[in-house]
Amino acid sequence: MQLEALLKRGEDRAVLPLGSVEQHAYLSLAVDAILAEQVAVDAAEPLGVPVFPAQAYGCTPTYMAYPGTMTLRLETLLAVLRDLVTSLHHHGFRRILVVNGHGGNNGASSVLQELQARLPGVQLRWHNWWAAPKTMGFVREVDPQASHASWMEGFASTRVHGVQLPEGSKPVVDYVRMALMDPVTKRGYLGDGCYGGRYAMDEATLDELWSIAVGETRAVIEGPWL
């Protein structure tokens, strides 16, 4: 009923978070889904724009040697996104932002062009929240080697109860070599799964990072739209 009233008032924006369930070293398997939804909610709430529950599962075949990782085939993810966006369009949403939390999902971003050509009046945007310029710029300023499963994803919501994060840093991985590895070889090379950087960071720094990420995401929701 609330959504129906919102649409009748002319609000046609909506946010669809997209995540992944995969190894994140000492953090939750659901990091990407948790943070995509949380940053979307924090960004959209003051604007009165609805955020739908995260599509938690994404495309992450290279981590399948780590138990608990759950992957969709790319064609499955494309089909899911088609159905979800088509559903939003059916109800009257026309300006739709996908807030993505997982780099492996980027191969599915091309479906937005297909849908924009097929669905009348729809405008679609794709936002990798963690890689936005100001957000990643702050990460690089604090810890140039920070990456997957490091402190930059280690918020209170993604830490695992009873798990102590290691002290210190991990050297950054060799991305060129790693891109050639099958899942078993990749696990042997990565070990705990972190790509590099400090494992933990003080709460003040994490709060500042989150504020920047929320601000950048909110700016994308605000537009410009046509």
TrEMBL record:
<dbReference type="GO" id="GO:0046872">
    <property type="term" value="F:metal ion binding"/>
</dbReference>
<keyword id="KW-0479">Metal-binding</keyword>
<protein>
    <submittedName>
        <fullName>Creatininase family protein</fullName>
    </submittedName>
</protein>
<dbReference type="InterPro" id="IPR003785">
    <property type="entry name" value="Creatininase/forma_Hydrolase"/>
</dbReference>
<dbReference type="GO" id="GO:0016811">
    <property type="term" value="F:hydrolase activity, acting on carbon-nitrogen (but not peptide) bonds, in linear amides"/>
</dbReference>
<dbReference type="InterPro" id="IPR024087">
    <property type="entry name" value="Creatininase-like_sf"/>
</dbReference>
<keyword id="KW-0378">Hydrolase</keyword>
<comment type="similarity">
    <text>Belongs to the creatininase superfamily.</text>
</comment>
<dbReference type="GO" id="GO:0009231">
    <property type="term" value="P:riboflavin biosynthetic process"/>
</dbReference>
<dbReference type="Pfam" id="PF02633">
    <property type="entry name" value="Creatininase"/>
</dbReference>
<keyword id="KW-0862">Zinc</keyword>
